[in-house]
Specification:
This protein has about 350 residues and is of the alpha/beta class. Helices cover about 40% and strands about 15% of the residues. Helix 4 packs parallel to helix 5 and helix 6 packs across helix 10. The structure holds NADPH dihydro-nicotinamide-adenine-dinucleotide phosphate (NDP) and guanosine-5'-diphosphate-rhamnose. Belongs to the NAD(P)-dependent epimerase/dehydratase family. GDP-mannose 4,6-dehydratase subfamily.
Length: about 350
């Protein structure tokens, strides 16, 4: 039985990857942070009591900023594969917490790679690094591929740039089977609530249920290549199974504006928007009754923005046999339906406690 260690197991991708690896028969270990409130909702259904004899899902407390902890957990678990998904992953928040973001995302990756060296596991453990399309930043060429130059545009992207190159360097210097997956945006009903897609689908669901009238967004013109997280964790696993460690782009090859995502989400509840104004004055109205639904709020603008991301996944198609399977329309539909259910249940819980 193969053993995997997942950092960031409580996040969106950690949850989907845990499910995938358990289904493939792996013994799955995850590192989770101590928190004063619950942070394990996405993986609670996978929890197994420590007293169960054939337990295949085990949590370890840990933090990417604590090298002693990482060394001890890696030593204890002796994983065949490490998936380094832990990160302060919010681009806008990284402008507020740049030093912490660098510590967790950049130096954290180094700490994990060093743990492999210190423990003499360079030849026995494969390593996956959660790299990102944010590395491309300011547009140099489109579509973006493994050979497109990087130009990071946020403290998050700059930290991930270090993590990308230290992964390449440890592969070349010490022969570690270490790969970067350069993943374009991927979403799902488990997406964090402050990323734009989930913020939109939650707000649309709340409007549908009569819980709110309108919501606020930042740059509606940004273009993203959005896929489904379920497809992307399959790609991560395929990257790690390659005989030779290399770096791969995972993307859909399509790009859409934030505005068109909003339109698609509203279409799910039968609402068509009319957009009026431009820039900070742009607003979206329900064409049926003229109600204001979406307003631009400059507080969500970023000091430096990434305007256009569109990936070229042809290397992954060719070498991994990987392709995205869920269309954007299918994903929007799944996310809105899920949020209608989630928000309806939240409302019922609140009413019970009133
Ligand atoms: P999430 O933000 O949903 O999850 C991040 C995970 O990292 C959470 O489990 C979080 O714990 C954990 N974490 C954060 N800081 C630390 C720390 N200091 N020590 C230990 N754990 C920590 O991200 P996603 O699942 O969406 O993304 C997974 C990875 O892939 C991230 O590295 C992200 O940067 C990268 N990525 C994501 C893309 C996407 O579109 N989703 C695209 C490209 C790359 P907690 O639950 O306690 O907060
Ligand atoms: P991103 O995702 O920055 O691409 O990083 P996010 O969903 O936060 O933003 C996408 C685009 O939408 C614009 N936007 C808004 N964004 C948020 N969060 N909130 C808003 O109200 C809003 N209005 C407009 C943003 O300006 C941006 O252009 C995600 C993360 O998962 C990273 O960890 C990952 O590396 C990249 O995707 C690939």
């Amino acid at each position: 039985m193969k053993r995997a260690l997942i950092t960031g197991v409580t996040g969106q991708d950690g949850a989907y990857l845990s499910e995938l690896l358990l289904a493939k028969g792996y013994d799955v270990h995850g590192i989770k942070r101590r928190s004063s409130s619950f942070n394990s909702a996405r993986i609670d259904h996978l929890y197994q009591d420590p007293h169960e004899a054939d337990r295949r899902f085990t949590m370890h407390y840990g933090d990417m900023t604590d090298s002693t902890n990482l060394i001890r957990v890696v030593q204890e678990v002796q994983p065949d594969e490490i998936y380094n998904l832990a990160a302060q992953s919010h681009v806008q928040v990284s402008f507020d917490t740049p030093e912490y973001t660098a510590n967790a995302d950049a130096v954290g990756t180094l700490r994990l790679l060093e743990a492999l060296r210190i423990l003499g596991m360079e030849k026995t453990t494969r390593f996956y690094q959660a790299s990102t399309s944010e590395l491309y930043g300011l547009v140099q060429e489109v579509p973006q591929s493994e050979t497109t130059p990087f130009y990071p545009r946020s403290p998050y992207a700059a930290a991930k740039l270090y993590a990308y190159w230290i992964t390449v360097n440890y592969r070349e210097a010490y022969g570690i089977h270490a790969s970067n997956g350069i993943l374009f945006n991927h979403e799902s009903p488990l997406r964090g609530e402050t990323f734009v897609t989930r913020k939109i689908t939650r707000a649309v669901a709340a409007i549908h249920l009569g819980r709110q009238d309108r919501f606020y967004l930042g740059n509606l013109d940004a273009k993203r290549d959005w896929g489904h997280a379920r497809d992307y964790v399959e790609g991560m696993w395929r990257i790690v199974q390659q005989d030779k460690a290399e770096d791969y782009v995972l993307a859909t090859g399509e790009t859409h504006t934030v505005r068109s995502f909003v339109d698609a989400a509203f279409a799910e509840i039968g609402v068509t928007l009319e957009w009026r104004g431009a820039g900070v004055d742009e607003k979206g109205y329900d064409t049926a009754d003229g109600t204001l639904r979406v307003e631009v709020d400059p507080r969500y603008f970023r000091p430096t923005e990434v305007d256009l991301l569109i990936g070229d996944p042809s290397k992954a198609h060719r070498e991994l046999g990987w392709r995205h399977t869920t269309t954007l329309a299918e994903m929007v539909s799944e996310m809105v339906a899920s949020d209608i259910k989630v928000i309806a249940e939240e409302g019922e819980r609140r009413e019970r406690h009133d």
